[in-house]
Amino acid sequence: MKIKSKKNKKFITLDNQDKENGFLVPIYNIKENFFITGREPEQAYLTVVNEGCIKGPHLHKIRRGFFTCIKGNIRVILKINGQYEIFYSGEKFDFLSIEIPTNIPAAIQNIGKCSAYVINMPSPAWDKEMNDEYTDDFSDFDFSSFEIIK
């Protein structure tokens, strides 16, 4: 299975005196045609992964995810047909966006020295009544095998 991902370019922003005042990272633009028509994100929310922590592993049977780490750095571990595929996102990884299809177990691991802020743009939209989160077993994956990103 081919997992879709895309790098998101960082643009330095300037004030009216041409002094750097921050940056802009476009994450989603309908004109890029990244998503199949009718499967575009229906919601956006922030999830925070504390330093040294892991969210998941779990999967969704109804919702697709679309993760982009906007502060800090993460690795997203997917289990596809019993094999692990790893993606990196965050400040050191071009703010990579990763689409997580339904029925693909995923874990988000903070690999940095601060809390990691991750935007998820799922479809369909999350609802606390949805009951669409299923745990998965990643006991054969070594979560300790990574280098901390500073």
Radius of gyration: 16 Å
How many strand units? 12
> How would a textbook summarize the main sheet?
5 strands, antiparallel
First-last Cα distance: 32 Å
CATH superfamily: Jelly Rolls
Give the SSE order as H and E letters: EEEEEEEEEEEE
Instruction: Describe the strand arrangement of the main beta sheet, using strand numbers.
Output: 1-9-6-11-4
Unreliable segments of 5+ consecutive residues? none
Query: Looking at the structure, what is the overall shape?
Result: globular
Mean pLDDT: 94
What does this structure look like?
The chain has strands at 5-6, 11-14, 20-24, 45-49, 54-59, 65-71, 73-80, 83-90, 97-100, 106-110, 116-120, 134-135. The protein has a 5-stranded antiparallel beta sheet with strand order 1-9-6-11-4, with no helix packed on it. The protein has 150 residues and is mainly beta. The model has no long low-confidence stretch (mean pLDDT 94). The chain has a single domain (5-29, 41-135), classed as Jelly Rolls (Sandwich).
